[in-house]
Design goal:
The complex is a heterodimer of chains A (about 200) and B (about 450). With about 200 residues, chain A is of the alpha/beta class. Chain A is built from eight helices and five strands, in the order E-H-E-H-H-E-H-E-H-H-E-H-H. A five-stranded parallel sheet of chain A has the order 2-3-1-4-5, with helices on both faces. Chain A starts with 5 loop residues before the first strand and ends with a helix. Chain B is built from 16 helices and 19 strands.
Chain lengths: ~200, ~450
C-alpha cells in the first residue's frame, strides 16, 4: 500500500502531552514502515522560525511557515507530526485548508493539572508574571470545536491516547493495520520453542 | 424484595473485572466451597450466580477461549485446537490470533470507546491492537513480543511478569511442578493488582493459566488425597480464593466481578492414540515405521484414508482438498465417515472394556460458518478420563503415565457473575461475550452465536 501523506496536528496548552504523544506516534509509524517527520514548537523555533517572538502576529507567522513545510511534506506522501500550542482556531483552520490531509488532535488537560505537572517550570514563572503572553495564563487558548481526536491527558494514559490516534489514522487510511494476517506469527526458532512447550503439555 | 430485586434497582453497572481460571471444574469449586476451603468464593457465590457451563468440542483451551472471546462458534473463528494443518501442503502450524477470523470482545469494547486490559488469554498472541493494553498468552515466544503496546513491556518486567510456568520442569517432578505454577501465579496476581490500582480500565481481564497446569500435573494426587501433594494443591486454591476475595473487596458499585473456567478436569484413565487406532484399522499408513520425527504429516503414506490431530480430530483424505487425497467427496466420503464414526463408538479399553468415546460428531453437527472447511471431518468426544492424543505414531493404543495425570472434561466449566440472577441452566462458553457486553451496556454485534445470560 502506498503511503498517503497526512499532517497530524497536535494542539493544546504547554505540558498537555503534545510532544510526548507525537514521539510515541512517530515510533509506532516507523515500526509500520511509514515515512515520518516531526515538527515541534520547541525545535522549529531554534531554526525555521528563530527570528519570531510570541506576539499574536509572530505566533501566526510561526504557524504559517510550519504549515508551508507540512504541506510540502504531506503532498509528497510523508506523515508529518506537528506539535504546537497553536492557540487560535482561525489559524488552525487555515492550516487545515492549506494542507488538505489534516488530522487535528486536541490534547486537553485542565489548568490545575498542568500547573500541578509543570514539567518545564513555565506555569510557575507565568503565574509569577515572568513570562508575558503565556497561553492559558495570560493569553487565550481557543479549543478546537471538532477535532478528529480528543485526548484528555489528565485522565488517559499515553498508551490509551496513542491507541485512539492510531485507530483514527487507520480508519482514515493513513496507517496500515498493525497485524497483517499473512505475516508469520513466529520465526522458525520461536516456533520450535513453542512446539516444545506444547509437546511438554501433551498437545503435540 | 429479594437480594436480586434490590440489586436490580441500583445504578447500572458499566465496568467488568474478569478472572479466567483455566480448567477449574464447577464441581471442584463447589467441593472447595462445601469443605470450607474457599470462604471467599463461598461468600461471593451467595452474592451472584455461580453456575455450571459447557465448553466446546474439542475441549482444549485454544478452541474454548477463542469461542469465549469472540462469542462465535469455531466454524466462524477458525480455531479448533493447538495445532492445525494446511490441507494442500500438509504443513502443520500453531493457530494464533492471526488465524482467528472473528473480532474479539476486547476489540468490540475498544471500538465502543471502552478502555480494556487483557492479560494472558489463550490465543491472544500476537497481540492485536486494543484501546488499552493486551498481554499475549503462553504461546508468546517472549514478553518483548507479547505486549501491545510495546511500551508497557518494561512495566511488566519490573513486576516480574512471566509468560508461563516451564512445563518441562514441571514434568520433572511434582515438587518442581508446584514451584513453577506457584511462581507463575505470584506473577499473575501481582500484575492483576498492579493493573487494577495503576491503570485506567473499563474491562480488566486476567487469565490464570496455572490452574490448568496444576491440574495436568497434580489432579490425580489431589483426587487420591496424597499426603503432601493434595494439601499443596489445596494451598494453591486457597491463594486463588484469597485473590478473588481481595479483588471483590476493592470493587465499587459500578464494577461487576466475573470469573469463568473453560472446561473441567478429571484424572486421566488413559491417553488414547487415535492415529494408532486408525493404523490398526487400515485407514492410516505411514511411509516408514517409525516415521522420521521431522517429517510431520509428510510421513503419511498417500494410500491413507484418514489421520488425526490432537485431540480426537479425524481428517479424511478427501480428493481435491487434501494433498494427494483420494476419497471422493459425496457418497464415498459420507460412507467412510460413517464407518469411522461407528468404529470409534465401538472402540473399547482392552483392560476395562469401557468405551473410549461417547460421541463422534460430524463437523457440521458442531460448527457452522466460513471456517467449517478447515475443521476436522469427525470430532471424537471421549468419556471423562480418556484423553485422545495426536502423535502420528505410537506403538500402543493407550498409555498411562505419571507426568500428565489430569484430563479435560466438557460439561464441567464454570461461570460466576456477581450480583445477577441467571436462570439459565444450560449454556456454554459462547454465551460469555454477549453477557459481558450486556453487563457493560455495549451493543452486541449481530453476528454473535451466543446469547446474553443477564
Amino acid at each position: 500500500m502506498e503511503q498517503k501523506g497526512v499532517t497530524v496536528w497536535f494542539t493544546g496548552l504547554s505540558g498537555a502531552g503534545k510532544t510526548a504523544l507525537a514521539l510515541r506516534l512517530e515510533e509506532e509509524m516507523r515500526q509500520r514502515g511509514l515515512k515520518v517527520e516531526r515538527l515541534d514548537g520547541d525545535i522549529v523555533r531554534q531554526g525555521l522560525t528563530r527570528d519570531l517572538g510570541f506576539s499574536k502576529e509572530d505566533r501566526d507567522k510561526n504557524i504559517e511557515r510550519v504549515t508551508f513545510v507540512a504541506k510540502l511534506l504531506t503532498r509528497n506522501g510523508v506523515a508529518v507530526l506537528c506539535s504546537f500550542i497553536s492557540p487560535y482556531r482561525a489559524v488552525r483552520a487555515h492550516s487545515r485548508q492549506e494542507i488538505g490531509n489534516f488530522v487535528e488532535v486536541y490534547c486537553h488537560a485542565t489548568l490545575e493539572t498542568l500547573i500541578g505537572r509543570d514539567v518545564k517550570g513555565l506555569y510557575k514563572r507565568a503565574l509569577a508574571g515572568e513570562i508575558p503572553n503565556f497561553t492559558g495564563v495570560s493569553d487565550p487558548y481557543e479549543a478546537p470545536e471538532n477535532p478528529e481526536v480528543m485526548i484528555d491527558s489528565g485522565q488517559e494514559t499515553i498508551e490509551g491516547s496513542l491507541a485512539k490516534i492510531v485507530h483514527k489514522l487507520e480508519e482514515l487510511g493513513y496507517m496500515p493495520p498493525a497485524a497483517e494476517e499473512e505475516l508469520p506469527s513466529y520465526t522458525p526458532e520461536e516456533e520450535a520453542a513453542i512446539e516444545a512447550r506444547l509437546a511438554a503439555l501433551g498437545y503435540l | 424484595m429479594g437480594l436480586f430485586g434490590k440489586l436490580r434497582g441500583k445504578k447500572k453497572e458499566r465496568r467488568v473485572v474478569f478472572i479466567g481460571l483455566d480448567g477449574t471444574p464447577y464441581t471442584f469449586m463447589q467441593r472447595l466451597i462445601a469443605s470450607g476451603r474457599a470462604p471467599n468464593a463461598a461468600r461471593l457465590a451467595g452474592q451472584g450466580s455461580l453456575l455450571r457451563m459447557e465448553s466446546v468440542w474439542p475441549w482444549v483451551s485454544s478452541a474454548a477461549w477463542s469461542t469465549m472471546m469472540t462469542g462465535v462458534n469455531p466454524g466462524k473463528h477458525g480455531i479448533f485446537g493447538f495445532v492445525d494443518r494446511d490441507p494442500a501442503t500438509y504443513k502443520q502450524f500453531i493457530p494464533t490470533s492471526r488465524h482467528m477470523k472473528a473480532r474479539t470482545l476486547w476489540e468490540v469494547l475498544s471500538d465502543a470507546g471502552k478502555r480494556v486490559i487483557v492479560v494472558n488469554v489463550p490465543v491472544t498472541y500476537p497481540p492485536r491492537q486494543v484501546n488499552g493494553i493486551l498481554v499475549g498468552c503462553f504461546l508468546s515466544p517472549s514478553l518483548d513480543k507479547a505486549v501491545y503496546p510495546q511500551s508497557y513491556v518494561p512495566t511488566l518486567k519490573s513486576l516480574g511478569y512471566i509468560i508461563d510456568a516451564d512445563p518441562w520442569k514441571a514434568r520433572e517432578s511434582k515438587d518442581l511442578a508446584l514451584q513453577e505454577v506457584n511462581a507463575a501465579l505470584d506473577a499473575r496476581i501481582r500484575t492483576l493488582f498492579h493493573l487494577f490500582d495503576h491503570e485506567a480500565w473499563d474491562y480488566l481481564h486476567v487469565h490464570v493459566m496455572e490452574t490448568d497446569r496444576l491440574h495436568h500435573f497434580l489432579w490425580q494426587q489431589m483426587e487420591e488425597e496424597h499426603p503432601i501433594y493434595a494439601p499443596a494443591f489445596y494451598d494453591f486454591y486457597r491463594r486463588i480464593d484469597d485473590m478473588l476475595g481481595r479483588l471483590a473487596g476493592k470493587l465499587g458499585d459500578d464494577t461487576t466481578l466475573v470469573w469463568m473456567s473453560d472446561h473441567g478436569f478429571c484424572t486421566v484413565k488413559k491417553e488414547v492414540y487415535a492415529n494408532r487406532w486408525l493404523m490398526d484399522r487400515g485407514w492410516l499408513k505411514l511411509r516408514s515405521v517409525p516415521p522420521d520425527p521431522k517429517a510431520g504429516l509428510d510421513a503419511i503414506d498417500p494410500a491413507s484414508a484418514a489421520y488425526s490431530l490432537d485431540p480426537g480430530r479425524v481428517f479424511i483424505r478427501v480428493k481435491g482438498r487434501e494433498r494427494d487425497g483420494w476419497v471422493a467427496p459425496g457418497a464415498e466420503y459420507e460412507a467412510l465417515r460413517d464407518e469411522i464414526a461407528a468404529a470409534a463408538l465401538e472402540l473399547r479399553d482392552p483392560d476395562s472394556g469401557e468405551r473410549f468415546f461417547q460421541a463422534a460428531f460430524r463437523r457440521e453437527e458442531l460448527y457452522h460458518g466460513p471456517c467449517l472447511e478447515q475443521a476436522a471431518d469427525l470430532i471424537l468426544a471421549p468419556y471423562d478420563g480418556y484423553d485422545p492424543k495426536g502423535p502420528l505414531y505410537k506403538e500402543t493404543l493407550t498409555f498411562k503415565g505419571d507426568e500428565l495425570v489430569g484430563a479435560h472434561t466438557y460439561d464441567d466449566a464454570m461461570l460466576y457473575v456477581a450480583g445477577k440472577e441467571i436462570p439459565q441452566t444450560r449454556f456454554s462458553v459462547v454465551d460469555v461475550m454477549p453477557t459481558v457486553l450486556s453487563l457493560m451496556d455495549v451493543a452486541c454485534p449481530p453476528e454473535l452465536d451466543g446469547q446474553s445470560l443477564v
